[in-house]
Amino acid sequence: MKAEDIFSWTSTILGFGLKASPVVLFYKIAVGNQNIEIVPELLIICNVLGAELWFSYWIKKGEKLAPLVSSSVSLVLGIIFSIIYLFYFSEKKCFKFLLFVILEATFVNLLYYGLSQTEVNFIGKVANVVNIITFISPGQRIVRVCKEKNYNLIPIWTTVLGCISSFGWLLFGILINDINCIIPNAISVMMAIFNTSIWVYFYCTTKGKEKNDKEEAEEMIETDKKDKDENEV
Fold first, then answer.
1. What is the C-alpha to C-alpha distance for residues 55 and 178, in angstroms, rounded to an integer?
2. Gap between the Cα atoms of 12 and 169, Å rounded
């Protein structure tokens, strides 16, 4: 087995867990009665559109099976999550979201059937733009982390797993010399490293503050106890 096949299949397997991670969020919404508004609408739309584009791109390329499997799983899960999203949304927003999904599906089909084999790189370029938007969309969460100093808002294990998976796809793209595979995964790795750094910083500072507060509280209790004993004597 070639090195690029090892990297691509490893990243595909790791990616299965990442792609299925929204299941937990939708379960909380369905069972815990949480508001569907906590799910970024733009993120779901971009994920579905990106999966459609990458699926079309790798079919057109027709070279490797692993990226096709990965993108097809992303597409199927994206459609499932979209259906769940539509089911729990209000009628007005449901119509708007459904319209976006239909328009993006039409757009991808026009690209797929309208472009020749030699023009397949254009699909990859469009997919890269969608990926960049997808990477930027959770930026509001990072702003909240910095304001609230709450590292728990960053799903650290998902972030680390995503970094490893993207790094594998980055190496795969380098080995097969595919710039459309290199760019989004390089950005994804950098974003994951940045998010992990933010998590580590606030984790360390918060834990340190909590430890100091605990020690101060224990000292105050000990001092109060000593004063009480002295007064009794």
1. 15
2. 9
Amino acid sitting at position 188: S
The ranges assigned to domains in the chain are 3-226
Residue 21: how many other CB atoms lie within 10 Å: 15
Contact 159, 192 (CB under 8 A): yes
CA dihedral 106, 107, 113, 119 (to 10 degrees): -170
Cα dist from 192 to 106, 143, 198, whole Å: 32, 15, 10
Distance separating alpha carbons of residues 16 and 210, to the nearest angstrom: 36
Cβ neighbors of 121 (< 8 A, separation 6 or more) are: 180
Fill in the amino acid letter for 7.
F
pLDDT at 89: 64
CA distances 89 to 55, 85, 154, Å, are 27, 6, 25
DSSP state, residue 138: T
Q: Which amino acid is present at 194? A: F
pLDDT in tens, 42-96: 777 778 888 888 888 888 887 788 888 888 888 888 887 777 777 766 555 677 7
The answer to whether residues 118 and 62 touch, using CB atoms and an 8 Å cutoff, is: no
Asked if 165 and 184 count as a contact pair (C-beta separation under 8 A), the reply is no
